[in-house]
Amino acid sequence: MQIVILSSSNCVAEYGAALFIDQLAAKPDSVLGLATGSTPLALYQLLIAACQQQRVSFASAKTFNLDEYLGLAGEHPQSYRYFMQQHLFNHIDISPENTAVPDGAAVDPVAACARYEQQIADAGGIDLQLLGVGRNGHIGFNEPSSGLYSRTRIKTLTPATIADNSRFFSAGEYQPHLSITMGIGTILDAKKVVLLATGVSKAGAVKAMVEGPLTAACPASALQLHQQAIIVLDEAAASELTDIDFYRHIERENQALHNRLRQQ
Ligand code: GLP
Questions:
Q1: Active-site residue 108, yes or no?
Q2: What residues contact residue 140 under an 8 Å CB cut-off, 6+ apart?
Q3: Of 87, 98, 127, 136, which residue is the catalytic one?
Q4: Quick check: 185 and 161 in contact, CB under 8 A?
Q5: Which of 31, 158, 162, 262 is packed most tightly, with the most Cβ within 10 A?
C-alpha cells in the first residue's frame, strides 16, 4: 500500500484526478472503475473541467461502476446510475454505451451479476479502480464479513450503511436494503486501485484498513493484498494512524526518487 497524506480534501481530489488524467494519457482506451458517494464528487468536478479544457478525453474509455441499489432503476434519482449521469457522464466526452453500472432493475439480478463480471472480463479487466470507504470499512457495498475473494453479487446492507446513506433519501422515501456490488475479488483484480478518504469520520476505518489485520471484518483491509493500491488521505482521515511519520517519510523518499528520475 502506498499511503499519501495531503493537507486538505481538495488536495486529495487533485491527486486522484491526476491519476486518472495520467492513466488516460498513457492509455486512452483505459477501463476505469468508478465509485459513488460524496468523496469522489470533487475529483469528478476536476475531471469534467479537464475534459472541457481538452486536457483529458474519455472518448475511447470504458467505465464500470462498483455498485448499485437493488430495486432502483437507472432513472431513479437515488440510483447510482443517475448519480453518475449527473455528476460525471453527462459532462464528459464518453460514449453512453461505454458506461456500465450494475442493473438495479434486473429481472434476474443473479444472472445480471454474472453478466457484469463477464462484461468486465470482456473489456480486458479494470486498469484503474476508484474507491471510497464506508465508516465500517466497506468498499463498494462489500460490508463486513464479505468474502475476501468474492465476485459481483447481491449484498444486504448493514443498518449502519443504511443510516449513513439515508441523507440522500427524503423522509418516507423507499430506501433499498439490498445492493449489487462488485466483489472484493473483483476489486483486487483491478491493475491499480486508488482509495480516497477524507474527514475524521473515516479515521477509524482508515486505521483498520492500513494498520489492522487482514480481515473480512474490515473489507478495505483486503487492499493490503493488492500490488498497486494507493490510499490518498487528508490529515483528518489519517489522524488515527500510528505510523504516520513513517508514511510521510516514504512519500518524501518517493517524491525525491521521482524528481531525480525526471531530471535524468
Ligand atoms: C456508499 C458506497 C461506497 C462509498 C461509501 C462512502 O456506501 N457504496 O462505494 O465508498 O458510500 O461514501 P461517502 O464517500 O459518501 O462517505
A1: no
A2: 35, 66, 67, 131, 181, 182, 183, 187
A3: 136
A4: no
A5: 31
Which residue's CA is minimally distant from atom 12 of ligand 1?
Answer: 37
CB-neighbour burial class of residue 216 (10 A; exposed 0-12, middle 13-18, buried 19+): middle
| Residues 144, 146: Cα–Cα separation, whole Å | 5
pTM: 0.96
**244-262 per-position pLDDT tens digit:** 999 999 999 998 888 888 8
CA–CA separation, 89 and 79 (whole Å): 14
CB atoms within 10 A of CB 1: 17
Nearest-atom number in ligand 1 for the CA of 39 is 14
Helices (DSSP H) in 41-79: which residue ranges?
41-52
Give the β-pairing of 67-69 and 2-6. Answer: unpaired
Instruction: Indicate the SS3 state at residue 230.
Output: strand
> Cα(172)–Cα(153) distance, rounded to whole angstroms?
28
